[in-house]
Amino acid sequence: MYDLIIKNGLIYDGIGSEPFAADIAISDEKIVKIGPLDKEAKNTIDATGKIVTPGFVDIHTHYDGQVTWDPYLRPSTYHGVTTVVMGNCGVGFSPCKPDQRGWLIGLMEGVEDIPGTALHEGIDWEWESFPEYLNALEKKPLAIDVGTQIPHGAVRAYVMGERGINHEEATQEEIDEMKQIVQEAVEAGAYGFSTSRTEKHNDVNGNLTPSITAHKTELVEIAKALGEINKGVLQGISDFYDFDSEFDIFKSMSSESGRPISITVEQQDARPDWWLKLLDGIEDAQSQGINMFGQVPPRATGILMGLTATLNPFRFHPSYMEIADLDLEERVKIMKDPVFKEKLLNENPVSINSLVDEIVNAYGKMFKLGEPANYEPDPDDSFESIGKRSTMSPQAIAYEVMLEKEGRALIYHPLFNYLPGDLSLVEKMLKHPFTIAGLGDAGAHCGAISDASFPTTLVQHWSRDRSRGDKIPLKTVIKMQTSETASLLGIDDRGVIKEGYKADINIIDYEGLTLHEPEIINDLPAGGRRLVQKASGYDYTIVSGEVAFIKGEATGALNGRLIRNTN
Hints:
By secondary structure, the protein is an alpha/beta fold.
């Protein structure tokens, strides 16, 4: 007998073929037959009226801490994800000397907005070296598969101590030691090396990430360490303020190592065209045989604001700052007082920095997200536009919206990739020949961003619901987050529905697929908060041949594991 049969489904194979109706037989964690079946199975799922896809492979997450205490890695598993890769953006928790644990937590808390209290309580620190970290993860119960990358910030601090944290230039001896550590990590199973060169990444004290000023020699030599063993990928992010110099670093990392590299691509309003220059540079590099890719999001990078979130439009108004630390119920009560409201609305906010000021003051890009969540809102629905058509100011509209749902309502600000007031720039990014869908940052930005739901946006919005521009065929958006993402990292046993491949499979009610509005919950260790977003329509998610999730909820099956790079 087969272990499991999925019958009567419409199969999207993950490589972009036309969908076809067939039955799928699974045994010993693999797809063993597709088509007419001649044997029975221990279990059968009738997928009539559903689409059947490979499990989604998310290559840009920050579960480095959460993986040590949460086998279900929510919220990714609400969205059909069966494999995650973490250790992106140069931040993570290994290698780590015991006296650097607090600093690494502070770096992750600052860069990725993960509560430090949760990390302090949740991480068990059974490791120092990266191979020891992998061994510790291998013992953890997991519902889905987890791959790792070794982060530059941790490596630099481990080798250079305070000198590395304080952005001093590495000596040749220190570079050689970093190379050895990175090589050792990839040989042990890490999928690659990541670095960050953006001013958006600061530790909890506001200090820039240690890798931002690393010399080109340091980065290229570390990349060459992967080339010497012919294993692993490279991943990075930069502001590209000095475009030629910065792009040359990433290009040299790939060209001199022979290893693939992916770079974050986003449009920023302050520099609206630089992302096009980056994509042109990537395309030119590819024409020279250099394996460069852009990592792009399937929607705007959107900030969620509210009284339960990290930011809200009045977070830095003096009157609000006086009550910011009170319980939600007390704040709501005070804010409903007309006298307090009038005082606050007539105040000028304290300036923090250009990015934060833009987030909290741009009422022309603030919207109600809605239920179901709408990630391509019309500019006519912004608080600024509504204010022009009414007697209320945009600030007053935001104030009233925040108090909805007993103070739990959220405001959506599409910060990056939304300059035209729609997703036309994202469409160009997604359709570029050398881009990979990613950047969901699952597990991170717990109080501000909820982009672990990117896989659902690709399927629901881009292939079915989009009305303000062209759609993308369903077979293509499935491929974008299965075989394409898996192939970039050399994870070659999944992402395709084909005989012999790993049986990671989604059975989706395509017509019923719905992305719901996020909510703030307090379920992290030490009562830490985070944004969680669910979706309806994922009838079954199968991991290694066993049903792990039904309608997004865990069955208790723990068939996931740490995966190690062997390519």
